[in-house]
User: What shape does this take?
Amino acid sequence: MTVAARPLYELAAGFNALFDLVLDEAMDLQLLEEGLHSIECELEEKCAGGIALIKSLEAYAEAYSKEQKRFETQRQMLENRIKRIKEWYRQNLDAMGKTKVPTQYGVMSVQKNGGKQPLKIDDAALIPEAYLICVPAHKEVNREALYEALSSGREIPGAHLEARGRSLRIK
Assistant: This one.
């Protein structure tokens, strides 16, 4: 059973329909703009509806973000437990001298890992010079100095200051 999503703020009828439309993953953005355009009311009322719509959607986005973090934590926990269970079986099959056990769900087997043998460096200071490479330091842009120079009117090849953008703020 799926419960219909409800906005956090009380929305006028046209905005309620837009709220449901925005949550539809298959919704075309052009349809959203047409929906916003089609709502006919006073400017203040339309802006109030827009604020309520935006704040409701922001609350949903934040809730999804929290759920994503919770799922990620649970996924990591399960993966760690799977590793522990596999290691337990590997150790016990090795102790019994078994390499393969067929079951109704599949075959559990212990085998050597493929690919290159793992390399472990115990102490890099003891490695002979013949096995070391020199990595040159890379250069990074000093953004503060570059900004100051451009702000004072200097022209610097490869960089420029862009016009300040405009954004909608809701207080």
The CA atoms of residues 84 and 90 lie 10 Å apart.
